[in-house]
Amino acid sequence: MSSYTIIFTESYVRRARKFFKKHPELLGHYEKCLLLMESNPFHPSLRIHALQGKLKGLHSISITLSYRLTIEFLIDDKEIIPIDIGTHDRVY
Predict the structure, then answer these.
(1) pLDDT tens digits along 36-51
(2) Which residues of the chain have pLDDT under 50?
């Protein structure tokens, strides 16, 4: 049983599809991140951290050293809502 629920919005699903058409080699890493986020979003390999500035209120999770997933992380409701996926520079 998962301790957190990941909620995929239509806009995120469109972004993710576009991203994986360009980077199909990252799909395995991404799937592993999703499983970890559901069971333990604070797992050290995810390197979760709060964002600042215009992205304040969001968090970032590392898919690889070069690619990030920004999420809305609702701790009280145990919900994770992916917002964007891409390179460090593009997501931030």
Answers:
(1) 999 999 999 999 999 9
(2) none
Domain positions in the chain are 5-91
Contacts of 36 (CB under 8 A, 6+ apart): 43, 45, 46
Q: How far apart are CA 72 and CA 13, in angstroms?
A: 15
Q: How many CA atoms lie within 13 A of 65 on its CB side?
A: 0
Under DSSP, the state recorded for 35 is H
Q: Please name the amino acid found at residue 13.
A: V
Q: What is the CATH number of domain 5-91?
A: 3.30.2310.20
**Rounded to two decimals, what is the model's pTM?**
0.87
